[in-house]
From TrEMBL:
Domain Tetrapyrrole biosynthesis uroporphyrinogen III synthase per the UniProt entry, residue ranges: 318-507
S-(dipyrrolylmethanemethyl)cysteine carried by residues: C245
Single Gene Ontology MF annotation: hydroxymethylbilane synthase activity
Name of this protein: Porphobilinogen deaminase
Keyword terms, alphabetized: Porphyrin biosynthesis, Transferase
Species this protein is from: Mucilaginibacter lutimaris
Family recorded in the similarity comment: Belongs to the HMBS family.
Pfam families referenced in this protein's UniProt entry, alphabetically: HEM4 (PF02602), Porphobil_deam (PF01379)
Main EC class the enzyme belongs to: transferase
Keyword Thylakoid: no
């Protein structure tokens, strides 16, 4: 092009970073551009929450008006801020690469409580203006107080620094782009699969006039069609739900090992418990429709779910099922008993890591009152073990979140190979993690408990049966068979292998925790 391209942008630091990113990307292909700052409704009205602002496009409408008027050539948006339909005459010409769409929970260090999930003290005040974040936060921590938080990223962080909140939640992408130092806070990073982001979070949208075909062709050099495909699914779901920024909806689509994985969280309001759904597919054809159908008001749920472990009255899984009046039959089919009552803490002298493959291992190890002569790191398998470690006053330095222990072993080995690692656990462990470590790694197995199968296990007539370990499968099917029509959910591939041996079809949750279990039941 032989003229300067005018880029319209909001005036916040993050918006200017985004616009300058596009300007620099154009310069790299020999296109000259300059910025024009435009104030939007979302910038002017800071005393109201998003659900009280009228209409949609709080941060985009004014930019689109100038684009239509021809006073700018490009509007650069955070893609998640855009309404699901372009105004007539405008198109999205390109989307950027996607920054990590994870969320960050920034916490004042003097209110951190390791024994609480997410590390915020009991009853803490958390700032966020998003109903989506509010619903998911309260599902995990119903004791928290949520208060409105508006302003650009530095302004929000400043309000936390001034102790107007105990914690605030921000998108990781904005903090990363601005290069903000967060060392003064305790930071909990919540991945996009555990805390589902807004549709299109982390990506930029480059909007132009539909008639400007010359500029469209130029911008294809900046376009990432693989990202656009995934964002198209997320925004398609948002459109089908008829929502905007105020809707408590999270949708995240990614491609993993050749398959599309889509995670959805939706509540009716910010203070209501959200439902979650996970789907994996070879193609995105019809996926949005399947997701919306799962959240239909008239859909039928199983009447009763059996799970082979005790479930507390406040557990996420119980709340997710009771919301839909699903009866829960929770009883463990095994018992665990200690195999040692004390040990010489001298064994900990040269330990670099302690790794727990179950919450039982954590519980029985800390009953021994271990004394650590030096700082050690802790690794755990799954959220249940992480929660138990927190209850004993320690953060996990590594959390294995995959159902496949081989994947967890590989990830852990990348951190811990060549060190000395203590593995407290069962008296006859599977040693899946140990087998993935290098020969120069020193491994110490410490049996702290053993598993005893219950005798004469009663059958269940539940519509869905959930088995939490291979031992529970063995205990149940020693005396019982599946009833016609019963659906099976297995936590972890080792549990699933038991059903493979039996020739029984089962569902494997994406994550081996209570959230993954709730997703699996919701998907049946």
């Amino acid at each position: 092009m032989d003229r300067t391209v005018i880029i319209g942008t909001r005036g916040s630091e993050l918006a200017l970073w985004q616009a300058n990113f596009v300007k620099d990307s154009l310069a790299a292909i020999n296109i000259t551009a300059e910025l024009k700052i435009i104030k939007t409704q979302g910038d002017r009205i800071l005393n109201l929450s998003f659900d009280k602002l009228e209409g949609k496009g709080f941060f985009t409408k004014e930019l689109e008006e100038e684009l239509l008027a021809g006073t700018i050539d490009i509007a650069v948006h955070s893609h998640k801020d855009l309404p699901t339909e372009n105004p007539p005459g405008l198109i999205i010409a390109a989307v950027s690469e996607r920054e990590d769409p994870a969320e960050l929970l920034l916490i004042l260090k003097d209110v951190v409580d390791v024994r609480q999930k997410l590390s915020v003290k009991f009853g803490g005040l958390v700032g966020t203006s998003s109903n989506r974040r509010k619903a998911q936060l309260l599902a995990i921590r119903p004791d928290l107080e949520i208060d409105e938080l508006r302003g650009n990223v530095p302004t929000r962080i400043g309000k936390l620094r001034d102790e107007k909140y105990d914690a605030i939640m921000l998108a990781k992408a904005g903090v990363t782009r601005l290069g903000i130092d967060l060392s003064e806070f305790h930071v909990e990073e919540l991945t996009a699969t555990e805390f589902i982001p807004a549709p299109a979070q982390g990506a930029l949208a480059i909007q132009i006039r539909e008639s400007n075909t010359e500029l469209y062709e130029v911008l294809q050099a900046l376009h990432h069609p693989d990202v656009a495909e995934e964002l198209g699914l997320e925004r398609g779901v948002l459109k089908m739900f008829g929502g905007g920024c105020h809707l408590p909806l999270g949708v995240y689509c990614r491609k993993d090992d050749g398959k599309y994985q889509v995670f959805t969280s939706k509540a009716d309001a910010g203070d209501q418990f959200p439902d979650r759904y996970f789907i994996e597919s070879d193609t995105l054809d019809g996926v949005a429709e399947k997701i919306v159908d799962r959240f239909a008001k008239d859909r039928k749920f199983p009447a009763k779910v059996f799970i082979s472990r005790d479930i507390s009255a406040t557990s996420y899984f119980r709340k997710a099922l009771e919301k839909h009046k699903i009866e829960i039959e929770a009883r463990s089919l095994i018992r665990t008993v200690p195999v040692i009552t004390k040990f010489d803490s001298y064994i900990l002298k040269n330990i670099d890591w302690v790794f727990f493959t179950s919450k039982n291992a954590v519980e029985y190890f800390f009953k021994l009152s271990p004394q650590f002569p030096k700082k050690v790191k802790f690794g755990v398998m799954g959220a249940g073990s992480e929660d138990m470690l927190r209850r004993n006053g320690h953060f996990a330095d590594f959390v294995g979140e995959s159902n496949d222990t081989a994947d967890v072993a590989a990830d852990f080995a990348a951190l811990a190979n060549g060190t000395t690692i203590l593995f407290p656990g069962a008296d006859n462990p599977m040693r899946s993690i140990q087998q993935g470590l290098s020969a120069e790694t020193k491994i110490i197995d410490l049996p702290v408990y053993e598993t005893v199968l219950e005798e004469e296990v009663e059958p269940t007539g539940a519509d869905v049966v959930v088995f939490t370990s291979p031992s529970n499968v063995e205990a149940y099917f020693a005396d019982n068979l599946l009833e016609p029509g019963q659906k099976v959910i297995a936590i972890g591939k080792s549990t699933g292998k038991k059903f493979d041996e039996m020739g029984v079809k089962y569902t494997l949750p994406f994550s081996p925790d209570e959230v993954g279990l709730a997703e699996a039941v919701f998907g049946i």
